[in-house]
């Protein structure tokens, strides 16, 4: 197995979501044949929600023993628990509320109305991660980590030219004055993300083509955070044709 980056191209965002959903279901069943629990990291982007909806509507959905799956989030918006902008709320509505999964397997970040400060919430999520550590010290073994990418190259809530991208110790940090609203957020750090066995990046749309091209051409990760992301076993960029227009031909995996 190689840990080189691969790019898989689908015709459009619907085909992209269906393809990721099908691969996720197959891979999760396979992983559960090999291991007792699987840890999945979710993201909050638009493609991600289509993927979760596609998993939910798949006839293969119930082939997964969801009681042995744990869900985490790469980042979260610091808003009240019932705010429509919360990444966990979107994922619950798209999939998690519809599957037979124990509540304790769904690891949401604290919300802004939890009584914690933003910094306390970052520490609390880091502690929850550490309590489930079976990979690196302080982290669960992330089997599959989903990530989105903004047109500026941000991933999770790691934005360009910001100190959070350089964090080397903490697994979770608070983000203030985010260039994308809401201004306050919580995010896994780069080294926490890169501890993942598999990273599946989900990208749709022409507005992300330039930054994807830059990332794959080796841009500095401080300027293009997604460029610094690499899983231990595999990093796959699942993209649609519109987003793939600046991907070097030799990086595109053949489709059969
Ligand atoms: O704000 C966020 O944006 C990114 C990308 O979202 P997209 O809709 O442009 O794909 C997302 O991955 C992240 O989780 C979210 O908090």
TrEMBL record:
Lineage top rank: taxon: Bacteria
Domain Glucosamine/galactosamine-6-phosphate isomerase: 12-235
One GO BP annotation of this record: carbohydrate metabolic process
Entries under SUPFAM superfamilies matching the protein: NagB/RpiA/CoA transferase-like
Pathway annotation from the record: Carbohydrate degradation; pentose phosphate pathway; D-ribulose 5-phosphate from D-glucose 6-phosphate (oxidative stage): step 2/3
InterPro entries the record matches: 6-phosphogluconolactonase_DevB (IPR005900), 6PGL (IPR039104), Glc/Gal-6P_isomerase (IPR006148), NagB/RpiA_transferase-like (IPR037171)
EC number: 3.1.1.31
Electron transport found in the keyword field: no
Catalytic activity: 6-phospho-D-glucono-1,5-lactone + H2O = 6-phospho-D-gluconate + H(+)
MF terms in GO: 6-phosphogluconolactonase activity
Keywords: Hydrolase
Function as written in the Swiss-Prot or TrEMBL entry: Hydrolysis of 6-phosphogluconolactone to 6-phosphogluconate.
Family stated for the protein in its record: Belongs to the glucosamine/galactosamine-6-phosphate isomerase family. 6-phosphogluconolactonase subfamily.
Record's protein name: 6-phosphogluconolactonase
Taxonomic lineage from the root: Bacteria, Bacillati, Actinomycetota, Actinomycetes, Micrococcales
């Amino acid at each position: 197995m190689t840990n080189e980056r691969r790019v898989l191209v689908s015709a459009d965002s619907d085909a992209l979501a269906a393809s990721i959903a099908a691969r996720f279901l197959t891979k999760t069943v396979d992983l559960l044949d090999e291991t007792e629990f699987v840890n999945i990291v979710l993201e909050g982007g638009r493609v991600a929600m289509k993927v979760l909806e596609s998993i939910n509507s798949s006839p293969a959905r119930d082939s997964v023993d969801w009681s042995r799956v744990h869900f985490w989030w790469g980042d979260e918006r610091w808003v009240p628990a019932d705010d429509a902008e919360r990444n966990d709320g979107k994922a619950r509505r798209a999939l998690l509320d519809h599957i037979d999964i124990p509540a304790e397997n769904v690891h949401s970040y604290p919300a802004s109305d939890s009584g914690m400060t933003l910094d306390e919430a970052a520490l609390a999520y880091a502690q929850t991660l550490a309590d489930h550590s079976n990979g690196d010290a302080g982290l669960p073994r992330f089997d599959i980590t989903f990530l989105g990418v903004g047109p500026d190259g941000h991933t999770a809530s790691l934005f360009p030219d910001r100190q959070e991208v350089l964090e080397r110790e903490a697994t979770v940090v608070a983000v203030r004055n985010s260039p994308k609203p809401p201004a306050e957020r919580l995010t896994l750090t780069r080294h926490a993300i890169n501890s993942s066995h598999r990273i599946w990046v989900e990208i749709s749309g022409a507005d992300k083509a330039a930054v994807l091209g830059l990332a794959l051409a080796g841009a500095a990760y401080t300027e293009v955070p997604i460029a610094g992301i690499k899983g231990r076993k595999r990093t796959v960029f699942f993209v649609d044709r519109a987003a793939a227009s600046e991907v070097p031909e030799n990086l595109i995996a053949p489709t059969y």
